[in-house]
Structure formats: C-alpha cells, structure tokens
Amino acid sequence: MLGCLSAKEYSYKKGDTVFAEGDKAKYLGIVLKGSVQPVRVDYYGNRSIVANIEPPQLFGESFACAGLKSLPVDVVAAEDTEILLIDAQLIAHPCKNACHFHCQTISNLLLIVAKKNLVLNKKIEITSKRTTREKLMTYLLLQAKEAKSRTFTIPYDRQELADYLEVDRSGLSAQISKLRNEKVFECRRSTFTLL
Q1: Residue 98 pLDDT more than 70?
Q2: C-alpha distance from residue 129 to each of 95, 125, 145 (Å)
Q3: What's the DSSP call for residue 51?
Q4: What residues have CB less than 8 Å from 35, skipping those under 6 apart?
Q5: Higher-confidence residue: 160 or 104?
Q6: Is the peptide bond before 56 cis (omega within 30 degrees of 0)?
Q7: Which residues pair with 37 in a beta bridge?
C-alpha cells in the first residue's frame, strides 16, 4: 500500500518547518514519532497554534483534499519528529486495481477528517470565550473530561498554551497564578490538577 501511494519518510529537528505557508497543498503527513503543530501567523506576526499533532495522527489532509493551491499555515516540528508524507491525490483517486486496501484508506481518511472537524469545533468553543480566564478554564475542563481525571498533562508549554488560546502570555501567566491562589487548580509545568 505504501508503495502504491509513493509514501516517503522524513525526519525533522525541533523547530524545523515541515510545511511552510504558501507551499503547495499536495501532501498529507502522518506523524510517526514526535509531534507537529500547525501554526497561523497573522499580518502583525501574532502566532496561533491550531493543534498539537502526535503519532499516529494526520495533518495537511484537509488542505490537500480540498484542492487548495497553497497552504494557509506553517506546520512546525514541536520536537524531533519522523513523518510519513503521502501525495493526497494518490489516496483520493484509487489505483486501476481498486484494491480493498485503497478503498479502506479512503474510508479511514474520511473518518479522520470528520474527527478533526470536531477538534476544530472544540478550539472554536475555547477561543470564542471573551476573557483569558474563560478560555483557560474551558480548555482545562475539556482536557480533564478527555483524560477522565482531575489530574492531566497538556501538550503545551506556557507560550504554546498562550498561542493555542490566542491570548497574551503575560496575561495567561497572571490568570494561572490567580487561579492557583484561588485554589481552583494546582499545576506544575504542564500537569494540572483541578481542585
């Protein structure tokens, strides 16, 4: 199947750009090791992390399958990362053999795109809140619910969390300190415990 799709494996160091805004929207990537973050940078240089993508998740599939000419985001390695890149058109248009594996791949891709839509809806729910406090608490409560525990670890450092929530880092740090003092939660680095 990988041969049929002309899949190629690549390695990236932390901070390397996997896809740059403006690149052709041709490939989808599968994270094999490490993690990547799609990042939007606006006209003024403000950075917004769209998501943290870890193994075995995909990225770039929506842009490639939608037929966009160029990518509207950068995709950056959040740590040392290994990725499998596949030409999306080779998935979307089955080979002449129309093998079962190819049909299953198309079905799986559709399921993944649908699930990612739900993830983006969650981000909209978080970032549509008006205050930094509301955004942070909505995010943390959703993380606790997903972890099914009041103690959980988030995939972001403070700057990345600020970029994900689309807030100023100093304002976020102030809210974290305030909520800690109010005994709403305890935290150590990226691990939080709701009280």
Answers
A1: no
A2: 46, 7, 18
A3: -
A4: 52, 53, 54, 55, 77, 78, 79, 81, 155
A5: 160
A6: yes
A7: 76
